[in-house]
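quick q for whoever's on today - can somebody do inverse folding on this one?? i tried earlier but teh output was garbage lol. C-alpha cells:
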C-alpha cells in the first residue's frame, strides 16, 4: 500500500512512522508512506501557501493553487483510490472505515492547517473527508498519523500474528474482552480459571461473552449499529 501525505509541517510526522509496527511495515515493503511538504508548490519566493479568507474573520486558509498543483503532480505518478481531507467536519473515523481503506492501493491524505483549505479543492479533488473526533487540532498531521496507524496494522503481514487485528475492539461492533498475562496470581487477584484450562472452544466462548458484556456496559450504541 502507498500512502502520500500533503502537509505544511512534515516534521510532525517523522516520529510516528519511524517506530514500532509502522516502522516494521515500511521495512518489509508492505507500507510506503511519502511525506510531501506543501511549500514545494508555494506561489512565491516567500514560500506562501496560505492567505486571508474572503469575507473577513480570524485565521488563514490554505490556498487552492499550491494544493491543486501538488495533487496534479502527484497524480501523474499514480492513480489515487481515495483523496482524503482530514477535517473536524468530516465523517467520524471508525474501524469499519479503517478496514475498507486497508484494501486500497494508493491513498492521498491532505492535512488541513490554520482554518482549513479553500473549499474549491474539496469540491474538485477530495473523494472522502475524515474526522478523528469532535474536537479541533492545530492541523491534520496528528489525524493523519492516527489514520495511517489504524490502516497500516490491518495490512496482511504487518502484524506478527495475522489474527491479532481480528480481535481488536470495534471489529464486529464489539469491544475487546479482558486480557491477562503472567503471573496467574497477582497479589491475590487471579486470572479467570477458564483461560488456564487449555480448551480453545471454551476460551473463545468466554471471550465472546465478555466482549458482549463489556460492549453493553461501556458502548451500548455499538450494538444498535448495523
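ok took a stab at it. sequence:
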Amino acid at each position: 500500500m502507498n500512502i502520500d501525505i500533503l502537509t505544511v509541517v512534515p516534521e510532525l510526522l517523522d516520529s510516528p512512522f519511524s517506530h514500532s509496527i509502522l516502522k516494521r511495515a515500511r521495512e518489509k515493503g508492505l507500507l510506503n508512506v511519502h511525506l510531501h511538504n506543501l511549500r514545494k508548490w508555494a506561489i512565491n519566493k516567500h514560500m506562501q501557501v496560505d492567505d486571508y479568507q474572503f469575507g473577513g474573520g480570524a485565521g488563514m486558509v490554505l490556498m487552492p493553487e499550491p494544493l491543486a498543483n501538488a495533487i496534479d503532480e502527484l497524480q501523474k505518478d499514480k492513480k489515487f483510490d481515495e483523496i482524503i481531507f482530514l477535517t473536524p467536519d468530516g465523517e467520524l473515523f471508525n474501524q469499519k472505515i479503517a478496514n475498507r481503506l486497508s484494501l486500497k492501493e494508493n491513498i492521498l491524505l491532505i492535512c488541513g492547517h490554520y482554518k482549513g483549505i479553500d473549499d474549491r479543492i474539496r469540491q474538485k479533488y477530495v473523494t472522502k473527508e475524515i474526522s478523528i473526533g469532535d474536537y479541533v487540532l492545530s492541523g491534520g498531521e496528528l489525524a493523519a498519523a492516527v489514520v495511517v496507524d489504524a490502516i497500516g496494522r490491518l495490512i496482511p503481514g504487518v502484524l506478527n500474528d495475522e489474527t491479532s487485528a481480528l480481535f481488536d475492539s470495534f471489529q464486529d461492533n464489539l469491544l475487546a474482552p479482558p486480557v491477562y498475562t503472567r503471573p496467574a496470581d497477582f497479589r491475590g487477584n487471579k486470572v479467570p480459571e477458564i483461560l488456564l484450562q487449555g480448551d480453545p472452544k471454551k476460551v473463545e466462548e468466554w471471550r465472546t461473552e465478555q466482549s458482549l458484556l463489556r460492549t453493553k456496559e461501556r458502548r451500548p450504541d455499538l450494538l444498535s449499529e448495523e
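fwiw Residues 169-223 form a domain with the Trp Operon Repressor; Chain A fold (CATH 1.10.1270.20). also Strands lie at 2-7, 32-37, 50-52, 60-62, 82-92, 106-111, 128-131, 185-186, 189-190. so keep that in mind when u check it
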